[in-house]
Design goal:
With 335 residues, the protein is an all-alpha fold. It has a single domain, classed as ABC transporter involved in vitamin B12 uptake, BtuC. Helices cover 77% and strands 1% of the residues. The chain has 15 helices and two strands. The protein has helices at residues 3-7, 11-26, 30-55, 63-79, 85-107, 112-132, 134-137, 159-181, 184-194, 196-201, 206-232, 242-255, 260-284, 290-307, 311-332; strands spanning 150-151, 154-155. It has a two-stranded antiparallel sheet with strand order 1-2. A hairpin with a 2-residue loop joins strand 1 and strand 2. Residues 1-5 have low confidence and may be disordered.
Amino acid sequence: MNRSGRVRPHLPWFILIGAVVLLPVIIPSKYVIGVMFLVGIYGVLAISLGILIGHAGLFSLAQPTWFGVGAYVAGVLAVREITPPWIGIIMGALFVALISYSMGAPLLRLRGHYLACATFGLLIIGEIAFTQLSDITGGNTGLLDIPPLSINGFVFRNVFHYYFLSWALCIGSLWFYSNLIHSRVGRAIRSSHDSETASKSMGINVPRYRLQLFVLTSFVTGLAGGVFCFYLRFAAPSIFSFALLVELILMIIIGGIGSLWGYLLGSLVIIWLGELINVYLGKVLPVMTGEVEAVFFGVLIIFVLIFMPRGLSGWVEQLFRLGKRTYEQVRRNPA
């Protein structure tokens, strides 16, 4: 294999890392970098949920709950000065993994919409717990006075610091999941999604692999929750509610189910469309409500499902194929 053949599979990674590094240099706007921080964090959530739904066929809707638990545990440990902030993030993610393991063992025996309903119940329970445990979480007022994140003396003081942290977590998650789905475990999970009976007949321990994936995605989501908590320096139940789940599902559908890169693309599109709607449509409408944004995204989903059933990632892939064929034809038949 020549050098270009070895480089080509890694080209998207080089482009992504280069874009993340150069963006603050090209556009040193705190607003833009703040929005891109959200793209990175929500990208982690979308990829984690997407790999469950699109690759494993597990319709788990508890991702906002894991996100919230990770945030609250990290925030409470920091506010009460029990652990340093960075250890609090890890402790929060481990606590999320422990809960998801204990809950996943019985829940993953369910399939399809039964699993979706059960995990949706977890989402509702999480919302209620975040509100009612006011002595710990601050209730509806929220968890206040969260100190800034610090790691070995380095304090994350501005949005640029958190931007690089969120994208390090996002790219790391994307790389980890990409390797996972192409590993022996990933092939077993994908085969069980296609036919669970056939997978079991081949000796694959489907429940074990599904539980492992369920716990891994919840752990990564808990890490994202801890980072998000220190970025806002605030946590409230409304942040980790059903509205977040709707946003994540939008990212997965619009990005393209079954594509890890598509989930990240969906996060980029949905976050920026939300910002554009609030900024520009708010100038047209005297009262910009959440219902207007919901209608807009509802129409967008219908459009994507009808005209781009594979999502934006499928559309981008078709464009690349078309460009490749055009390039090859030009090379064979030069003018």
